[in-house]
Amino acid sequence: MPNTSTSPRPLWQRMLIRRLKFLAIVVVALGVLLGGSYLFAPQWLFNANIAREAMAAHLEKKSVQAGDTRWSYYEGGSGPTIVLLHGFADSKDVWLDVARQLTPHFHLVIPDLPGWGESSRDMSANYDIDAQATRLQAFVTTLGLGRFLLVGHSMGGAIAGVYAAEHPAHVSGLALLDSFGLKFKENAFARETLAGKDPLAFTHAAGFWRATDLVLAKRPDIPGRFVDVLVARNVQDHAFIAKVFDELRQPSQYLALQNRLGQLTMPVLGLWCNGDKVIDISAQDSLRNGLTHASAISTSTLVGCDHIPQLEKPGETAQVLTAFALSH
């Protein structure tokens, strides 16, 4: 009679099938985990994505006590040191796309400014431009940074400029991106803020997108649950945002950099987006005209962005900063 029994599969086939089954189980489990995280714990997934971007930029998250603040900051890369300061109601994460292109050539230090992001805050303390510049000196001293290129965006630009005026021995060059603290042609944003309305504080997704339309030329593709995370963070920070907003509405603050331009002696770069609806590009003229003692003055204008070039034009921003750093 013929033999109808099935021959056992070769060992390599059995092992391959087991591995494929295991991989299928892992894929299904990951899909369930990520899907569940997106729906029920988007904060976890959001933070994991930020950590992935920081790793891709070769940055390590660190913390240090300096003065009255527990500073959270990124550090990474090798070469000349660049310190990058973020703007109002923002955090160190805004620099990640630019940092990925700078770390192969520079040593980067990117802090959450006191009161913002993951750095500590004291609601009874002052967080205006002058107070933050004083805190920055404590941070620089604690880390022993020596001389460095100082880069500041928006509010961070005013802090960087005031710091450079008061501590020129530390600053080899100063780069100001769409910087606060300068005179500029009055726009709708200036009128609203001087009247006491802060368009960067919001309580729902519609408010988030209105603020986004103000600072970006094109809406980014952000998953809906990530928008919920950003709204929740803004709501949690409302009291602090309102406090600092009121501090910065004083003439001594919104002209803090303008009043110190004559003290700047290092090379200075002014980089602006041509469509900035927050700090009008006319501020670049105020910067250039006020730099009476700077050893070199450079200006650069990026087309197709609004107020945050490091988000909308990270490649071009990194190129401009690299050229400025290498030339000085």
Strand order of the largest sheet: 1-2-4-3-5-6-7-8
The CATH architecture name of the largest domain reads 3-Layer(aba) Sandwich
Q: Determine the strand fraction and express it as a percent band.
A: 15-25%
- SSE sequence, one letter per element: HHEEEHEHEHEHHHHHEHEHH
Domains, number: 2
Shape: globular
- CATH homologous group name of the largest domain: Alpha/Beta hydrolase fold, catalytic domain
Rg, Å, rounded: 24 Å
Low-confidence stretches: 28-34
What is the C-level CATH assignment of the largest domain?
Answer: Alpha Beta
- Provide the structure class: alpha/beta
Q: Give the distance, in angstroms, between the N- and C-terminal Cα atoms.
A: 92 Å
Counting DSSP E segments of at least 2 residues, the number of strands comes to 8
Fill in the CATH topology of the largest domain. Answer: Rossmann fold
Q: Compute the number of helices.
A: 13
What is the helix fraction of residues, given as a range?
A: 40-55%
Write down the overall mean pLDDT.
92
